[in-house]
Design brief:
Strand content: under 5%
Number of helices: 8
Structural class: mainly alpha
Protein name: Amino acid ABC transporter permease
Largest sheet: none
Length: 229
């Protein structure tokens, strides 16, 4: 009796290995998001200050990570820089660092945009009651900006999770890399295994990203409804 292609998922420890790869993907994405959101929030606040030099430097940082493709950044940080400076850093930690710096750049733009979107009269009211700059950010600007930032931050998270599919290019044993190994190892026994392996990977990514996407749209809709009364 011919094998069903779906059996490739349950041959040996293939399914467990795929879930292990997914766990590595989640850990890298989560680490990058936590670190990137914290750093990006700080940079976003700094970009609203009056220093033109500081704003110029942070703008360059943003454009560097926005313009250069993520795959080029991974090669740059994994192959080129370590070779030039004789550095050695594990692929998982390096991937988390690269993705974290990318998230920080994007997050700084989200935070800056949210802060400057707070109505001017709110700032003037804060100043009128004697708040200093720190208190103005602490009690007026940041609390109001957070509600504007959340949907965009969730969308950024979905982009980060999707982009982790590039990690296999620097030998990270993420779910894509493990999936490819499973396909190659079982190609003779299960010629249609590629359909089932990548089908499972699609479902796993969908189960993670779709709830986040739905949540982001719901928050944005609620915000618009509040603003429109």
């Amino acid at each position: 009796m011919a094998h069903s292609g779906i059996n490739v998922l349950f041959e040996g420890d293939n399914f467990i290995r795929l879930l292990g790869g997914l766990w590595i993907t989640i850990k890298i994405a989560a680490g990058a998001l936590v670190g990137g959101v914290i750093l990006g929030t700080i940079l976003g606040v700094l970009r609203t200050l009056n220093s033109k030099i500081l704003r110029f430097i942070l703008r360059l940082y943003l454009e560097f990570f926005r313009i250069i493709p993520t795959v080029v950044l991974l090669f740059l940080f994994y192959y080129i820089i370590p070779r030039q400076f004789n550095l050695n850093m594990p692929a998982n930690e390096l991937a988390t660092l690269v993705f974290g710096l990318w998230v920080a750049a994007e997050m700084s733009d989200i935070v800056r945009g949210s802060l400057i979107s707070v109505p001017k009269h709110q700032q003037e009211s804060g100043k009128a009651i004697g708040l200093n700059r720190y208190q103005l950010y602490r009690y007026v600007l940041i609390p109001q900006a957070v509600s504007l930032e959340i949907p965009a931050t969730i969308n950024l998270a979905t982009r980060v999770i999707k982009t982790t599919s590039l990690l296999m290019l620097i030998s990270v044993m993420d779910v894509i890399n493990v999936g490819q190994q499973v396909i190659e190892a079982n190609n003779q026994s299960y010629p249609t295994g590629v359909f089932w392996v990548y089908g499972l990977i699609f479902i796993l990514y969908f189960l993670i990203d779709y709830p986040l996407s739905w949540w982001s749209k719901r928050l944005e809709k609620q915000r618009l409804e509040r603003n429109n009364g």
